Amino acid sequence: MNILAHKPLAKNLEFDSDMMWVELIDGRKLGIPLAYFPRLLNATSEQRQLYEMSGGGSGLHWDGIDEDINVENLLMGIGDRTHLHSERLAA
Length: 91
Description:
By secondary structure, the chain is α+β, with helices and mostly antiparallel strands. 26% of the residues lie in helices and 31% in strands.
């Protein structure tokens, strides 16, 4: 059973010193610690603002820091999975 009745889509994105705030088209606002995404945590404020929304808001992309985030994964509490992929390659 899918717990999401409708695909979550982002309509706006903001940052403060340690959080990313994603406003969804249905009115919800998600607060995600930047620590979940080390590339965003280590990016400059200017780099964080240079994002693109893809798929009508289903994805967030930062070309300059090579970061891609699936909005649906944010609702499920899934953070950066890059380190998992790197660990598998090293094993």
